[in-house]
Structures are given as C-alpha cells and as structure tokens.
Amino acid sequence: MSILKGKVAVVTGSTSGIGLAYARAFAGAGADVVLNGMGALPDVERERAAIESDFGVKAVYSPADMAKPDEIAELITLGENTFGSVDVLVNNAGVQHVAAIEEFPIDKWDTIIGINLSSAFHAIRAAVPGMKKRGWGRIITTASAHSLVASPFKSAYVAAKHGIVGLTKTVALELARSKITCNCISLGYVWTPLVEKQIPNTMKARNLRRDEVISDVLLAAQPTKEFVTVQQVASLALFLCSQDAAQITGANLSIDGGWTAASSPPQMRSAF
Ligand code: NAD
C-alpha cells in the first residue's frame, strides 16, 4: 500500500514506542519521514537507517526539544527544506508525572503542558501554511483515555490531554475547507518496552504472577484485559491519512479496550 508515496511525515517523539510505530507505518506506505525525540544517538541512527533500508524511503532525525517553541518550528522547517513539504504531522511526544495537586511540582506542570499540549500548537501552527499552500494535509495527535476521563494525581497530564481535544476540534474547523484533517487518537494502555520493563518489579513488590500483574494491575481499567498494540495505533493513523478518511476531522478516536465505556471509579483507573 503506497498511499503516502511522495508525501512527507513528521512524527514527534518517534525514537521509541508508539511514535516509532507511526513512523514505520508511514514509511511502509511510501512516505519520507522526519524522526524526532530523545535517545542515545547510536540507537536513533539504527532506527533511522532501518526505516530507509526496510522501506526504501528517506528518513532524517531531528533532536528538537518539544518543550521549546523555536526548536519545534525548526523541526517543521527541516522537513520542508529536506524533502520539500510536510504533509502529515503527528504530535506524539509525551511525558508524565504523578503527584497530589498540592504537591505537584510547578516545573513538572509547565513541562507536561509544554510537551504534551503546547508543542502540538506550535507544530500545527508551523506546518499549516505549507499544507494550505499544497491543498492537502493530515494532522494527528496522540491523546489518551485521559482526554476523556481523569485519574487522581495526574492533573497536568489529564489537563494536557483534555486540551488536545479542544485544540483538535478548533483546528479541524479552521481547516475544514482546506482538505486538511485534524484528529486525535485516545489510547488505553499500549504494550511498549516501557510497560514490559515494569512487570518484574511489580511481580516482586506485590507478590503476584506475571499474568496477575498484567490483568489486575496494569490492565485494571481496561475491560478487554488486553493491551493495545503499537501496530493497531499506527494502522488507525495510516487510515486517517487515506482518502477514505477525508471526512473524518475534529474527531477524538478511542483505542482503549473499552476503558472509557466503563463506569468504574477513578481509583481503578490505570497509568496513562
Ligand atoms: P515513550 O516514552 O516510548 O515515547 C515518548 C516519546 O516522546 C519518545 O520518543 C521520547 O523521546 C519523546 N519525548 C519526550 N520528551 C520529549 C521532548 N522534550 N522533546 C522531544 N521528544 C520528547 O512513550 P509512548 O508510550 O510511546 O508515548 C507516546 C505518546 O502516547 C505520548 O503522548 C503518551 O502520552 C501517549 N500515550 C501512551 C500510552 C501507553 O500506554 N503507552 C497510553 C496513552 C497515551
């Protein structure tokens, strides 16, 4: 499937996890990609080179810090200068901090709002002029079940993810006549290396078996008791880039194993 042949995708936070899966899915559909995120340079270079050799497209990497508006604008410029356009923008970089509201560190609040919410504003603001000029664009932001429901101790993350929904709707309306769609994807618990690494310690700390940690701790809020996979997330993003998805805009699409359909108390809600 080469639905993105000749197109260029910028994916923030794509050095690991979900972001990397988006980048590989777009490359698999023919797009040149701009990778971004933190990580050891040799690891990033390995992933970048693998994208080029696996899919026969071009990939470049930018270490732009999504907490810094100037660097975000430069990330979009890098895509435009290197490949001639930015046609698909995925705002995916995200961080988390867990603390009671009265103890929530002010710098953590600012960082989470900066990386999880304001970075999407800055990237969209920088990418839209080029998309408008070319008359086509796809903007997708990784939100969370926490764009729809709250959990205690995650004030900044929940506020940022709720904010993404408002930003998505507003941008979708502004661009409705420009053949540019803007949507967000709200995830439940996704199986990533980060999640996998938590399991041995949790087994030890709670004296539980691996399957009990997965079902009763990690997936406490997810009715299917199964993780979302990064491939499932990337497949939806790729569909949003297709012509068949041209009338999906301003939407908040859930992939959460039924999490936000359930009415369990907030204490049951899990990590993301
Ligand atoms: P991850 O930690 O593997 O990926 C986060 C990415 O963001 C990494 O590439 C990291 O380098 C990058 N990043 C962090 N700070 C950055 C900064 N200042 N500048 C540039 N890049 C930065 O985690 P993930 O699970 O793949 O998360 C990706 C997105 O998915 C996040 O927005 C997260 O909130 C969301 N999400 C994840 C889950 C889950 O279960 N994993 C659930 C719901 C939502």
TrEMBL record:
It comes from the Bacteria. GO terms for molecular function: 3-hydroxybutyrate dehydrogenase activity. InterPro entries: 3-OHbutyrate_DH, NAD(P)-bd_dom_sf, Sc_DH/Rdtase_CS, SDR, SDR_fam. GO terms for biological process: monocarboxylic acid metabolic process. Belongs to the short-chain dehydrogenases/reductases (SDR) family. This is 3-hydroxybutyrate dehydrogenase. The lineage of its organism: Bacteria, Pseudomonadati, Pseudomonadota, Alphaproteobacteria, Hyphomicrobiales.
